[in-house]
Amino acid sequence: MVEPTLRYIVVDLEATCWETRDSSRHMEIIEIGAVCLASSSGPIGREFAAFVKPVASPVLSEFCTQLTTIRQEDVDGAELFPAVLARFVAWIGEEPYRLVSWGAYDLNQFRKDCLRHGIPLPPAFENHINLKQEFSKVKNVRPLGMKAALALLNISLTGTHHRGIDDARNTALIAQIILPQLTT
Q1: Which of 150, 143, 142, 152 lies closest to 173, judged by CA?
Q2: Three-state SS for 127?
Q3: 27 SS3 class
Q4: Which positions are annotated as active-site residues?
């Protein structure tokens, strides 16, 4: 029997946010954006994009709206996190896969929102690649933001920065360069 090919799910989350730095414990997911790489070098295939209705702080701050371009009506009409997470996991499909994100934030935010809603974190999510950290090692540079990493690779940022699906697409471009160089 042939082993299934390992897929890479490149995810980017947007969350409620405020101008003050001490607000991180109050953040909750308002958008999940993801693309599926068929292998470490691609190609980029299916996409997932969904807004999430926040419950702890249902009204978006002006700072959040300006940063993400996500509007109040986008989240007001969205499903709650448990429903969106279920759709996301169904979209991912069967294992094997590795969750990939730019930094540790996305996995940590998934953990926080699962805890907030009393649902388990999908166990396969723990099989996570912190692409920011791996990029830093492979390129022998200090950790950079995703936009700066794209610039270092001479890749133009496309779409709107701080939108889940656009940042997932951009991160996937970096992933296709870095993932084949990893021995994970």
Answers
A1: 150
A2: coil
A3: coil
A4: 14, 162
Whether 132 and 102 have beta carbons less than 8 Å apart is answered as yes
At 94, is the secondary structure helix, strand, or coil? coil
Q: What is the dihedral of CA 23, 29, 32, 33, to 10 degrees?
A: -10
Token pair 């997911």 is found at 29
User: Cα separation of 95 and 83, whole Å?
Assistant: 20
First to last CA, the chain: 23
Tell me what pLDDT residue 20 has: 81
Q: Contact, 109 vs 102, CB < 8 A?
A: no
Give pLDDT tens digits for 89-142: 999 999 999 999 999 999 999 999 999 999 999 999 999 999 999 999 999 999
Those residues whose C-beta lies under 8 Å from the C-beta of residue 115, and which sit 6 or more positions away, are none
Which of 129, 76, 133, 78 has the alpha carbon at shortest distance from 107? 129
Rounded CA-CA distance 16/24 in Å is 9
The two structure tokens encoding residue 178: 């870095």
pLDDT band, very low/low/confident/very high, at 5 (cuts 50, 70, 90): confident
